[in-house]
Design a protein that fits this description.
This protein is of the alpha+beta class and about 70 residues long. Helix content is about 50%, strand content about 30%. The protein has four helices and two strands, in the order E-E-H-H-H-H. A two-stranded antiparallel ribbon has the order 1-2. It starts with a strand and ends with a helix.
């Protein structure tokens, strides 16, 4: 399982800021299979496939597609 979603915690205590970076591992292939069973996928399969490609590659394909139109 090589996929992980990053998140950041910013804490300010007594005027001092600290930043913590974290990653949560997940099974992207299971997530894709679950999404394929939803109404979202039924109504927008092409757009969902664009999103899946982003999840698998880490690239924002939507931006590339809309910039070329």
């Amino acid at each position: 399982m090589k996929y992980a979603t990053p998140y950041t915690l910013l804490t300010v205590k007594n005027g001092v800021a600290s930043v913590e970076e974290h990653r949560v591992k997940y099974d992207v292939y299971s997530l894709i299979e679950k999404v394929k069973t939803t109404e979202q996928y039924e109504k927008a399969p092409v757009w969902s496939e664009v999103i899946f490609r982003e999840w698998l590659t880490g690239h924002e394909w939507e931006k590339k597609i809309t910039d070329s139109v």
